[in-house]
Amino acid sequence: MDDLKAKYLGQIAEAADESALEAIRLAAVGKKGEVALKMRELGKMTPEERQVAGPALNALKDEINSALAAKKAALEDAALDARLRTEWLDVTLPSRPQRQGSLHPISQVQEEITAIFAELGFSVAEGPRIDTDWYNFDALNIPGHHPARAEMDTFYMHRAEGDDRPPHVLRTHTSPVQIRAMEKMGAPLRIICPGGVYRADYDQTHTPMFHQVEGLALDKDISMANLKWVLEEFVKSFFEVDDVELRFRASHFPFTEPSAEVDIRCSWQDGTLKIGEGDDWMEILGSGMVHPKVIAAGGIDPEVYQGFAFGIGIDRLAMLKYGIPDLRAFFDSDLRWLRHYGFRSLDVPALHGGLSR
Ligand code: DAH
Fold first, then answer.
1. Other C-beta atoms within 10 Å of 2: how many?
2. What architecture does CATH give domain 103-344?
3. What is the dihedral of CA 288, 245, 327, 152, to 10 degrees?
């Protein structure tokens, strides 16, 4: 028994891993192991011999079992140590400077605009990009024969012959959302609606898809003076300057009366666009007092409510603010361009933190 004990305790001490240990366990204390074979011999012994050998065999079995358990625990500890050494991680390393993705300048500017108007009490309304010609034109006081329909280079949706549903168009401006907002929310009302619009046009400052933000404020005593103040506040906040030179030009839109177009002073030098200086003017928005027919089309009584509306070209603003000379590059999906002009996606614009940081 002493030989057995010495042999197995020696083997256990030297076992290199858990599978070696398991082999030793089977050979020593398994069902057909050496200790079990010895137990079987107890039957052939005299009762006196058995009284000595029985407890001694049990004690041997216990001793081997606890040596196995201790060795198993030691092997597991060693394995964990080895793993911890190889899976070392320096949590003080700086994060990767390489940006995986970025916000497109249009998204950034859209969020900046939303933040500014939210501060002025405007909420965000939405409408479909595919709309009926009633919302896009008629409800905005642009009847079928009106030249504005042709001027807008409208994309019409294909209609099967015999389909007599109202014609659908890709909206040519965000103005139809004025009507939808009035229908849904009634008056008084203060909303903006940023989003994509479509026209068949293509050059350095025009693309077939571009972005506008519509504004609409209706109440019982809103005047042109409120419009001018809101637009000036907006432009100053947006360009983060105390003064921006704006030019209000008398204009005409079917959906406003009176109407004004607003230009911003700028310069184009060597393909670089700068605001606030130079001899050029860039038109950034159309505006005016909402036409009574438009208010009525929205289901609101124009004898009681009046207000102003405006439509701003978002892409134009982005070009001016971030010095981007060619509008077409916005929509080329060139990753190099996006890496250069894109914004960190976690820097959500807010007025208090500086809009564009
Ligand atoms: N919808 C006009 C356009 O796309 C822009 C516009 C002008 C919107 C005057 C307005 C407005 O709300 O009052 O050219």
1. 8
2. 2-Layer Sandwich (3.30)
3. 20
pLDDT, residue 148, reads 75
* C-alpha–C-alpha distance, residues 340 and 334, integer Å: 10
Mean pLDDT, range 273-297, rounded to an integer: 90
Atom number, ligand 1, closest to the C-alpha of residue 286: 7
Q: How many CA atoms lie within 13 A of 227 on its CB side?
A: 29
Q: Does the pTM of the predicted model rise above 0.85?
A: no
**Selection from 7, 4, 24, 2 nearest residue 70 by Cα:** 24
CA 216 to CA 124: how far, in whole Å?
A: 11
Residues contacting ligand 1 via CB (< 6 Å): 173, 175, 214, 253, 255-256, 286-288, 309-311
For 124, other C-beta atoms within 10 Å of its C-beta total 15
Q: Are 288 and 257 in contact (CB under 8 A)?
A: yes
Q: Residue 252 Cα, ligand 1 centroid: separation in angstroms?
A: 10
Greatest CA span in the chain, whole angstroms? 125
